[in-house]
């Protein structure tokens, strides 16, 4: 038996239930992982609420690190005793679980389990956005919303290391300072300031080359106003609500703009792409280009409290659950 946090019905954090489930022996292509640290991400709340529905009941969570305790037939990607991490595989809120071996990433020496669990999903999100969705070039200017959050802190440090001018938004002066301390050249309090006007001021009226927006509904139109002509808005999250664009003509009126809604599912469908992104991420951490901040930790049994804190914008950096 293993302890898991289950969603039996869609809803708020109160629907998370701690239960004991059986863990089977790994089947072909599977590995059993004893988990040491579990990452908390907004997608966990979307799946719990039903915004991104999964068949009920399901074990919550999408990211963790741990040790391989058994492997199934045909597994060549990992061996028993390997330190590994994974992301994008629902069922992470557990002491022990089965994972497709092809989804497991080796944790390099010099990176601890808590850091690996805190960084892989968020860091790979930053990777595909900065290197694939819009490959950021030296001298470009970017805008990153929620720059004080877990993904934001990783991405803004990485973008600065690439030679970009980085503008971030955050909610409140404390978070603005965190954004400035983690890669942003300029940071804006979107709760108290007109962020499109300040972006235009910072860019001499030109606008930014690309906006990375994980906030969603509350920032969407303002983000369009921040772009230079033919710039790109990469909308990759819905923290404030789902975006709808009933009139595509708005993109023409605001400068022949591009909009995309990327997901890691499509960028990391192949194992070689997953390993390429993970290597780039861990190399950047080991080189000191990215410093990972675990802002808070919660016991696995307190996952509901962790969800409340995340959705209440009470966290900065990454949040980790400890089995």
In short:
GO terms for molecular function: mRNA 3'-UTR AU-rich region binding; NADPH binding; quinone reductase (NADPH) activity; zinc ion binding. By secondary structure, this protein is of the alpha/beta class. It is 31% helix and 28% strand.
* Separation, N- and C-terminal Cα atoms: 14 Å
Q: Into which percentage range does the β-strand content fall?
A: 25-35%
* Uncertain stretches of 5 or more adjacent residues: none
The helix/strand class is alpha/beta
Descriptive keywords:
alpha/beta; seven-stranded mixed sheet; 2 domains; zinc ion binding; six-stranded parallel sheet; 323 residues; Quinone Oxidoreductase, Chain A, domain 1; Rossmann fold
How would you portray this structure in words?
The longest helix has 21 residues, at 113-133. Helix 2 (113-133) packs across helix 3 (150-161). With 323 residues, the protein is α/β, with parallel strands linked by helices. It starts with a strand and ends with a strand. It is globular. The chain is built from ten helices and 16 strands. It holds the Pfam family ADH_zinc_N. It comes from Devosia lucknowensis. GO terms for molecular function: mRNA 3'-UTR AU-rich region binding; NADPH binding; quinone reductase (NADPH) activity; zinc ion binding.
């Amino acid at each position: 038996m293993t302890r898991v946090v289950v969603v039996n019905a869609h809803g708020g954090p109160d629907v998370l239930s701690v239960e004991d489930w059986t863990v089977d022996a790994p089947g072909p292509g599977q590995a059993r992982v004893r988990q040491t640290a579990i990452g908390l991400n907004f997608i966990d709340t979307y799946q719990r609420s039903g915004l991104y529905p999964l068949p009920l009941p399901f074990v919550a969570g999408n990211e963790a690190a741990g040790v391989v305790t058994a492997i199934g037939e045909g597994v060549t990607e990992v061996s028993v005793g390997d330190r590994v991490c994974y992301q994008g595989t629902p069922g992470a809120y557990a002491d022990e679980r089965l994972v497709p071996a092809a989804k497991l990433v080796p944790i390099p020496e010099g990176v601890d389990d808590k850091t690996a669990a805190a960084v892989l999903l968020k860091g790979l999100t930053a990777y595909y956005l900065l290197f694939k969705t819009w490959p950021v070039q030296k001298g470009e200017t970017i805008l990153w919303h929620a720059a004080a959050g877990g993904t934001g802190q990783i991405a803004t440090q990485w973008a600065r290391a690439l030679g970009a001018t980085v503008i971030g938004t955050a909610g409140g002066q404390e978070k603005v300072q965190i954004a400035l301390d983690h890669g942003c050249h300029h940071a804006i309090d979107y709760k108290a300031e007109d962020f499109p006007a300040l972006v235009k001021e910072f860019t001499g009226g030109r606008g930014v080359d690309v906006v990375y927006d994980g906030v969603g509904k509350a920032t969407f139109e303002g983000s369009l106003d921040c772009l230079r002509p033919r710039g790109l808005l990469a909308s990759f999250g819905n923290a404030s609500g789902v975006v709808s664009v009933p009139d595509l003509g708005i993109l023409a009126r605001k400068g022949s703009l591009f909009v995309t809604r990327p997901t890691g599912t499509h960028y990391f469908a192949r194992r070689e792409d997953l390993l390429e992104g993970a290597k780039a991420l861990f190399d950047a951490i080991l080189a000191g280009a990215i410093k990972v901040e675990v802002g808070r930790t919660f016991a696995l049994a307190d996952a509901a409290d962790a969800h409340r804190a995340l959705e209440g914008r009470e966290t900065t950096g990454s949040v980790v659950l400890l089995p």
